[in-house]
Amino acid sequence: MNNASVVTVTVATDIEIKHHGSGRFSLLGAIDFDSAGQVMAEGQKLFADHDRVVMDTAAAEMSSTAGLAVLMEWASWCEVRDIELVYEGLQANALAVAELNGVTMMLPISSTTASRNEQPAINHFESDASGS
């Protein structure tokens, strides 16, 4: 990819969306509740002219529900407009937040991201055979 063609949009302090061309984007920085609305709106503007969007989130901090809310809203917004959206590079902590909130299935995550972050499920509430 030619870095000369990358368009960087600074959304808020320490948050950027980079457009690498052909509907490929990357999100960098930590989304919080103060910046979530601005990040969401800027992404929608950038996605509007594309039939397919691939968003690399590997450099984004998604440890709160604010970042997750942005990803979910983008997914919903794209679906209504028949824009195919795929998230790549979603970090394990972001997937954990999504899983805790029961919304993992609502996120269009690439198969490579999902398989890279797969870990065996642990049931901490399973009782032993004696019933204790």
In short:
This protein is α/β, with parallel strands linked by helices. It is built from four helices and five strands; from the N terminus they run E-E-E-H-E-H-E-H-H.
Key features?
single chain, 132 residues, alpha/beta, Transcription Regulator spoIIAA, 4 helices, 5 strands
Structure overview:
With 132 residues, the protein is α/β, with parallel strands linked by helices. The protein has one domain: Transcription Regulator spoIIAA. The chain contains four helices and five strands; from the N terminus they run E-E-E-H-E-H-E-H-H. It has a five-stranded mixed β-sheet with strand order 1-2-3-4-5, with helices on one face. It is globular and about 35 Å long.
How is the CATH topology named?
A: Transcription Regulator spoIIAA
**Relative helix content:** 25-40%
| Strand residues, percent | 25-35%
Number of helices: 4
Radius of gyration: 17 Å
User: What's the SSE pattern?
Assistant: EEEHEHEHH
Mean pLDDT equals 80
Spatial separation of the terminal alpha carbons: 58 Å
CATH architecture: 2-Layer Sandwich
The CATH fourth-level homologous superfamily: STAS domain
Profile the largest sheet: 5 strands, mixed
CATH class designation? Alpha Beta
